[in-house]
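Thread: Newbie trying to understand structure tokens

Hi all, I'm a second-year student working on a class project, and my supervisor (Dr. K.) asked me to get a predicted structure for one chain before our next meeting. I've only ever worked with sequences, so writing a 3D structure as a token string is new to me. If someone could post the tokens and maybe explain what I'm looking at, I'd be very grateful. Here's the chain:
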Amino acid sequence: MKANKVLYVSVGLLLLFILVTVMGNIAEGEAPNTIRLSIEWLTKYVLPWIFLYWFIKLVRKIK
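---
Reply by user tm_fold:
Sure, no problem. This is what the structure looks like when written as tokens:
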């Protein structure tokens, strides 16, 4: 049950980050590259930490 909460919270935070970034850049007038830059930033900085978290959980479960 706790794993589901962690998953929902992490997905919610990612969506919130994308939404805030997109809305902020639309207000500034830089809409065309906003979504691409948000996804690039997420894949470069956020997703490796999420994968590392799940990999550590997997290793602990295997032991």
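A couple of things are worth pointing out once you decode it. Residues 34-62 form the longest helix (29 residues). The CA atoms of residues 22 and 35 lie 6 Å apart. Feel free to ask follow-ups in this thread.
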